[in-house]
Amino acid sequence: GKMEDKINKRKEEENDELDALRPRKKFYRCRAHANPYTEHSIDYPITPDQWEEPKKYYPEFFANPSHSDEDKLIRFTDIGCGFGGLLFALSPLFPKKLMLGMEIRPTVCQYVVERVHHKRQECPGEFQNIFAIRSNAMKYLPNYFAKSQLEKMFFCFPDPHFKKKKQRRRIINSSLLSEYAYVLKPGGRLYTITDVEDLHNWMTSHLNSHPLFKKISDEELEKDVCVPHISSASEEAKKVTRNHGQKFVAVYDRILLEQPQ
Asked: Active-site residue among 159, 198, 218, 253?
């Protein structure tokens, strides 16, 4: 009857409102990469235990009485998360894991944050475990994460920095790997994917020669539920697919140093 029509009309209006609020990517255009060595004005915590922000990032998750203090620690991080495609794909697969995207480009980060808020409104109870912040992972990771806190780190389609003199800016190098090993728990995983073969070779050679990382077997790779998503979920991954580019994947376990006998 009339009542139903009214309700349906209201629903339609609400959907239109939500639709109007949906963040549109075209308003968040920006450069593909940023120089990690420029002094960007980024607020970062002095130490992880002084970092109060996460409860604002994941308010429903924190308010849930079934979540322990252990649950309320961020466990996955997507370094250079771009438009957040991977976070949205992994969110329902690991509903009890808090995930944080770190992105140096402010407009892109803003887009992800608005999209998270929008999706939470659109799908009540969902996407409560993801967020993104603007930060420089090459400088400040140990300010955010305690030793062995993280279980997974993702490096998807990082800036290739082709020029020889700029290769020090690559997100994977020997000194940074020691930092990643510090925040990743033993048994944790580090994921890399790129469409640039030269960068793939660079990343794997650094990882292979680092004592705290060990490449996982093809069999393990097949079993890992995150691997299909790093190849397909992000904007970058979709772009590579559209351009018929190749994707080079390498995944490593954070291992304990073998004790000398």
From this structure: 159
Going from the first residue of the chain to its last (261 residues), give the mean pLDDT of each consecutive group of 10, the final group possibly shorter: 73 64 56 55 82 95 96 97 96 98 94 97 97 88 95 92 65 84 97 95 95 96 97 93 95 85 56
Exposed, middle or buried: residue 9 (CB in 10 Å: 0-12, 13-18, 19+)? exposed
The partner residues of 101 in beta bridges, in order of sequence, read: 78, 132
- Show Cβ contacts of residue 191 under 8 Å, excluding neighbours closer than 6 positions: 152, 153, 154, 155, 156, 226, 227, 230, 249, 251
Distance CA 92, CA 238 (A): 20
54-57 own/partner pairs: CB under 8 Å, 24+ apart: 54/98, 54/100, 54/131, 57/100, 57/131, 57/133
Active site residue 159: yes
Alpha carbons 45 and 140: distance in angstroms, whole number = 9
